[in-house]
Amino acid sequence: MAKCAICEKGAHFGNNVSHSHRRSNKMWKSNIKSVKVKTANGAAKKMYVCTSCLRSGKVERA
After folding, report:
1. Which residue in 3, 9, 47, 49 has the fewest CB atoms around it within 10 Å?
2. Does residue 25 fall inside a structural domain?
3. Which domain holds residue 49?
4. Are 11 and 28 in contact (CB under 8 A)?
5. How many domains in the chain?
6. What is the pTM of this model?
C-alpha cells in the first residue's frame, strides 16, 4: 500500500463489528494519488501524495 510522501499517511487497520458483535478485519485506505510535483530546484518529480496535502497547499503540482 502506498504512503503519502509528505505526511506519511497510509492505511489504517481495525475491526468490522456486525450487529451481532462478531468481528472481522477491516482496512481503511487513505486517498492517495500519484501526481507530478514541483521540487525545490524547479524540476518535476512523480510522488504519491494524499488529497489532504494537495488541498492544503503543502505540495505544488508541476
Report:
1. 3
2. yes
3. 12-56
4. yes
5. 1
6. 0.76
**Residue at 1 is within a domain:** no
Q: What is the DSSP string of 2-54?
A: ---TTT----EEEEEE-TT--EEEEEEPP-EEEEEEE-TTS-EEEEEEEHHHH
Contacts of 17 (CB under 8 A, 6+ apart): 23
- Residue 18: inside a domain: yes
Spell out the alpha helix ranges (H) of the chain.
51-56
Residue type for position 27: M
Beta bridge partners of 22: none
Cell triple for 42: 524547479
